[in-house]
């Protein structure tokens, strides 16, 4: 992994502004940062090239498109095998990339191996995903689910 780059106060102002509205014009961003548009453009390009700005996206509230149920699943895999042909972790990591319901997957320390954030329409959709997809995967030994009742904070912004 690349080492973090040094950010000054202006870089941080630019990043905070772009995290609030990724469609800001360079003129608006320049006013926010206290620089000229051309200076802001150079800084933004440098931040993009350094990988500090990874991409620009549209944030879609899942509820607005019929995905009203969010679940967090702790998943435990079967133990590693000696055979390099069937590595449970590699099989699971590849499979999870193909499951559209899974919007986030993190490897964990502790009792469980992975934490999945799953977006589905309703409980029936969730039940189908669990029984037909997740628990059918040969590497999955166990899973425990928690459902989101209320979102108290939901942000994509990182503290800069």
TrEMBL record:
Per the record's keyword annotation, is DNA repair included, yes or no?
no
Tell me which SUPFAM superfamilies the record gives.
Answer: Dimeric alpha+beta barrel (SSF54909), Winged helix' DNA-binding domain (SSF46785)
Task: State whether keyword Transcription regulation applies.
Answer: yes
Matching InterPro entries, A to Z?
ArsR-like_HTH, AsnC-type_HTH_dom, Dimeric_a/b-barrel, Tscrpt_reg_AsnC-like, Tscrpt_reg_AsnC/Lrp_C, WH-like_DNA-bd_sf, WH_DNA-bd_sf
Q: Which CDD domains match?
A: HTH_ARSR
Gene3D superfamilies this protein is in?
Answer: 3.30.70.920, Winged helix-like DNA-binding domain superfamily/Winged helix DNA-binding domain
The entry's keywords: DNA-binding, Transcription, Transcription regulation
Q: Which domain of life is it from?
A: Bacteria
User: Where in this chain does the record put each HTH asnC-type domain?
Assistant: 7-68
Please give the PANTHER family that the UniProt record associates with this protein: LEUCINE-RESPONSIVE REGULATORY PROTEIN, TRANSCRIPTIONAL REGULATORY PROTEIN
Name of the protein this chain belongs to = Lrp/AsnC family transcriptional regulator
Q: Which organism is it from?
A: Pelomonas candidula
